[in-house]
Amino acid sequence: PSLKNTFSYDFFIGAAINGGAINGSDTLALDLIRREFNSITPENIMKWEHIHPFPDKFNFEMPDKYVRLGQKNNMHIVGHTLVWHSQLAEWVAQVNDSASMAGLLTEHITKIVGRYKGKIDSWDVVNEALNEDGSLRESIFKEVLGDHYLELAFRTAAKADPEAQLVYNDYNLTHPEKREGAIRLVKNLQENGVKIDAIGMQGHWNLERPTLEEIETSILAYHKAGVKVLITELDITVLPNPWELEGAEVSQNFEGNKFMNPYPESLPDSVQNQLAERYADIFSLFAKHRDKIDRVTFWGINDGASWLNGWPIKGRTNYPLLFDRNYRPKKAYESIMKLKK
Ligand code: G3I
User: Where are the beta strands (DSSP E) in the chain?
Assistant: First the structure.
């Protein structure tokens, strides 16, 4: 029994992976990836600052290894991410006329997608382009090219690999205004004859939010807009978000505040159970909508490696994933597996 076998009739089960797993030094992670998952996403190594750090320099060494790992293990391989305002190489900010920027985006996407044509199955083409109110976020791409940079990005990706699944990926896509914005974005592309295949709903969620109803409403809305739904970047934080709780002021004085690192040694059984229940609830919802959902990807393999130990404040001990710091399955893992028994 494994996650990938248990849900083989439902959707791909993916995980974001890092250098250690890719180059084989993190053998425990690698074992888990091979045993439990049938899809991988590179957590960082394909982001612009890594893969295209200078105008004429592309770093393909790690991405090549990443893709080979996926191929060897017969996996659904994801590319993350072509166009994003964050983790961008600094030099891109100096490009300030639209012809050069269009040329640059085209080159960046064509080179990368083209290199992995027929190998990378699904691309996060544009990442996090929306504000919380559903409008388009300011970025160097929007500033220099205008709103149609999205169209350019998707068109170019489709041209470089017509078979790849093309995804718009973002967080908080269960929030009504942002959801409407994402649907407008999809419709815009569709109306202009541009290929977009899926919405990636990043699942950076907590024990209460979003509610099952909010998640379901969103899955149905994206499905109705004519795209597949992917749950990307799934992790359930068990720690309070100081911004939500107390406002920005407290969070700035956060360091050393024990309250903010409530479980430094281990997760109490009561919360362990809550997490298990939460995962079971969302997975039974996903399974119910398996005709609409193509893939569910966890943002990391095990708790120790999760970005949530460092966000929104550094140095907390978080427990958001299915495997613990010793790479052992948690109750949350069992609760998901039990759904199919
Ligand atoms: O590898 C260096 C290390 O050598 C150095 O000592 C250390 C010092 O800060 O930094 C390390 O790099 C960090 C990297 O994670 C690996 O841990 C970067 O500073 C840090 O910025 C980077 O954070 C990543 C973040 O994206 C950057 O925006 C997280 O790992 C990654 O999980 C996160 O993923 C994003 C998705 O791509 C998009 N959606 C949201 C999601 C969470 O923020």
Answer: 12-17, 39-42, 76-83, 122-127, 165-170, 198-206, 228-237, 293-298
